[in-house]
Specification:
Chain B: Keywords: Cell membrane, Membrane, Transmembrane, Transmembrane helix. The complex is a heterodimer. Chain A is built from 10 helices and 10 strands. Chain A is of the alpha/beta class. Chain A folds into 2 domains: about 170 residues, 3-Layer(aba) Sandwich (Rossmann fold), CATH 3.40.50.300; about 80 residues, no CATH class. In chain B, helix 3 runs parallel beside helix 7. The chains are: A alpha/beta, B mainly alpha. At the A-B interface, helix 2, helix 3, helix 4 and helix 5 of A face helix 9, helix 10 and helix 11 of B. Bound molecules: adenosine-5'-triphosphate and magnesium ion.
Chain lengths: ~260, ~325
């Protein structure tokens, strides 16, 4: 059981092997409510694999994941989502054909309370609940600055707005733990700065606990209370942002491995 | 949600349709009435196929199989007991005694078809990938084999004839309108959005808590229900049910209708069904040979099959999303103009 009594997410010994390749080895994590924990590391370090394991999209080869006293390793993605752990994807995965509003509604309806009969007969329970969901979704779109796009197909949005929409969609499910996989990827410096402030704002507004994978050092150093550094599937350093910046092994992992990537 | 003005317009349009159908019913001859009924049944079939193939993105070819199940179920219930004893003397006692009114028979047709879909779908729809197409293809073959061989119930390849001609414009279009309404309600609810999310990206949908199996099963069984009803309507229109009417060719025709109209759209499904009922029918004269302006055109057998194929190729080449694409007819947009 979690050594840290405050921890809501406890992970230990988490390991994932793909055939010969060990993508993640003996990964451990204790997350306190309200924390923003940054995960950094070179390409292929295993960061996204952590998210895939936490959200049940892939099964661990070994290890345990405990969310609020409940073992969730080997549970289905749907179950994990229903427990309040929601993610975004590194390579944007919106429902491109559907409108911006519908994208967000799909996540919001995880908590819907009407049934098929109420839907087909358009009973008051259905009508009221749809209104409630819609106004909640519009509130989020407003917050993320996307309200003017509500009726446009998600796939037609500019790239940066699609990234924000992914976050809005995740928020619609009312998560407690939000996993953001490179939310600023492909953004220019001013966009990513704006996004950073947005992430801080939603964190404060919705009392979120956040796991953040991000290559943009400015963003991740600014947002995170704590950082983990992964390299070749292992945690090579963990601590406050200032400590990490000067950590010899981290500098080595970054400069030695991928000088090409800044 | 519709506002009051849109609601009024929808009701007016509905009243107009009903008025036109009443006019047609009293003034048109048998040939045209039958064509209108066939068109309505095709709308039912394509709109119900749209639940899986269009909205949820799982491809089913099983519709003719469900139509067959529905048609035979209803036939066995509506044929008068005396006649049944005569043409099907070896029927098990409980079936020989079973009789039901047409509406009950339609309901039974849909229900039995839906149960079949549930049994096929349950193992297959948990898998990722296009297994449903294969499984439903297998189902078509099984239905053919069973219907052809269990002749004490189905009269085998001869088929059952002398069904009471219960199908009329009101049954067909009553059910058509009910189905369109139901579809439309579904699309604008959590259920329809869940289906469309699965079509768009099943992995993302699942990570957001959408129940893949439940939505796929709902789409598949609901579609099968109406395919069963459609099959029963069809049987009681032409008053014959025989196995060769429910072949792979029928599945192909329905898929063509759906692709041409616009897969994923209710409006598209309706348009596809209407267009691809009328065009082959208009050109049917050519199939038996005709004379136009002094030129004698020899009979072109199998022409309608060719028309479906050519139309499909043209649409795929010129407008792969179909006539209306994913869009729906919108009263709001229409009122603005
Ligand atoms: N489904 C999979 N099958 C096989 N190998 C995989 C799979 N998913 C990830 N890997 C491998 O596991 C390793 C870790 O991948 P992961 O996506 O977790 O890296 P990452 O840290 O997110 O990298 P990036 O910064 O490029 O996103 C990589 O070598 C990758 O090729
Ligand atoms: Mg990654």
């Amino acid at each position: 059981m979690p050594p840290n009594p405050n921890s809501i997410l406890h992970v230990e010994g988490l390991t994932k092997r793909f055939r010969g390749l060990t993508a993640l080895e003996n990964y451990a994590l204790d997350l306190e409510p309200g924390e923003i924990l940054g995960i950094i590391g070179p390409n292929g370090a295993g960061k996204t694999t952590v998210f895939n394991l936490l959200t049940g999209l892939i099964e661990p080869s070994a290890g345990t994941i405990i969310w609020k006293d409940q073992v969730i390793s080997y549970k289905s993605p749907r179950f994990i989502a229903s427990q309040g752990i929601i993610r975004t994807f590194q390579n944007i995965r919106l429902f491109n054909d559907l409108t911006v509003l519908d994208n967000v509604m799909i996540a919001a309806q995880i908590h819907k309370r009407y049934g098929l009969v109420a839907t087909l007969l358009s009973l008051p329970s259905f009508v009221q609940e749809e209104r409630r969901l819609e106004s909640w979704c519009m509130e989020l779109l407003d917050l993320m600055g996307l309200a003017q796009y509500r009726s446009r197909p998600a796939g037609s949005l500019p790239y940066g707005e699609q990234r924000k929409l992914e976050i809005a969609r995740a928020l619609a499910a009312r998560p407690e733990l939000l996993l953001l996989d490179e939310p600023a990827a492909g953004m220019n410096p001013s966009e990513s700065w704006g996004l950073m402030e947005l992430i801080r704002k939603i964190h404060d507004t919705f009392n979120l606990t956040v796991l953040l994978i991000e290559h943009d050092m400015r963003v991740v150093m600014n947002l995170s209370n704590r950082l983990q550094v992964l390299s070749y599937g292992k945690i090579i350093a963990e601590g406050q942002p200032q400590e990490i910046q000067t950590h010899p092994q981290v500098i080595e992992a970054y400069l030695g491995r991928s000088a090409a990537y800044v | 949600m519709l506002n009051r003005r849109e609601k009024t317009c929808t009701l007016v349009a509905l009243a107009l349709v009903i008025g036109l159908l009443a006019l047609a019913n009293s003034f048109l001859n048998q040939y045209y009435l039958r064509l209108i009924n066939v068109m309505g049944i095709n709308i039912i079939l394509v709109v119900s196929l749209n639940f899986t193939n269009g909205l949820t993105g799982v491809f089913s070819l099983g519709h003719p199989g469900f139509m067959a199940v529905g048609a035979y179920t209803a036939a066995l219930l509506t044929i008068p007991l005396r006649q049944k004893a005569f043409i099907l003397p070896d029927l098990p006692a409980w079936l020989a005694q079973a009789h039901a009114s047409f509406p009950v028979a339609l309901l039974a047709a849909g229900t039995v078809a839906a149960i079949c879909a549930f049994l096929i779908g349950y193992p297959v729809l948990r898998l990722r990938g296009h297994y449903l197409a294969l499984a439903t293809l297998g189902f078509l073959v099984i239905v053919q084999v069973v219907v052809t061989n269990v002749s004490q119930i189905t009269r085998g390849a001869r088929g059952i004839n002398g069904l009471p001609p219960e199908t009329n414009i009101w049954w067909v279009y009553g059910i058509t309108i009910a189905l369109i309404y139901l579809s439309w309600r579904l699309v604008h609810s959590a259920y329809g959005r869940g289906m469309m999310a699965i079509r768009g990206d099943d992995l993302a949908a699942e990570a957001l808590g959408v129940n893949l199996v439940k939505h796929r099963m709902l789409a598949f069984t609901l579609g099968a229900f109406f395919a069963g009803v459609g099959g029963a309507l069809w049987g009681h229109l032409i008053t014959v049910v025989s196995p060769n009417a429910f072949s792979f060719a029928q599945a192909f025709i329905l898929v063509v209708m759906s692709v041409i109209g616009g897969m994923g759209s209710i409006t598209g499904s309706i348009i596809g069904a209407v267009v691809m009922t009328l065009i082959p029918e208009a050109l049917r004269g050519l199939e038996v040979g005709t004379t136009i302006a002094g030129f004698h055109i020899p009979p072109l057998y199998g022409l309608s099959q060719v028309i479906y194929s050519v139309a499909l190729i043209i649409v795929l080449a010129v407008r792969p999303q179909g006539i209306v694409g994913l869009r729906e007819f919108s009263m709001r947009r229409w009122l603005k103009n």
